[in-house]
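Moderator note: this is an archived Q&A kept for reference. The question asked for a predicted structure of one protein chain; the sequence and the answer are reproduced below.
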Amino acid sequence: MFSKTFGYALRATAFVTIHGKDGKRVGALDISQALDIPHHFLGKIMQDLVRHGILDSLKGPSGGFYTNERTLVTPLVDILKITDGSLVFDQCALNIKRCNAANPCPLHHEFAECRNGMLHSLAEKTIGQMAAEVESGESYLAR
């Protein structure tokens, strides 16, 4: 239902949140290796997150990515919008272009209910909550 880019972005942001505390910066190579994300692909994702204000970055030998005042309170759905756009909110389960409530595909109502539940969950959960679950051992970011 969601792209690899979204998964990578969530995992990388949570990783920076956990490991980039107290002014510490996390390098893209460290993130890439720890989470098994292709380095060049991760670079583009991280640039998007910085451009949208989810994370901050500093270039140079002591540079890297770090959190800002917005990071912890960012709902996961905001990252979904950055990586996958709003298309995921309107897409038909069967990829029928004219599918809508007035002209539904055979899965329209079921898929709409599932999608709305997932979007509600992503709107309610924040990066800070996700990182806290990982830190407590309730969940994990890498295989």
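Archived answer notes: The chain has a mean pLDDT of 92.
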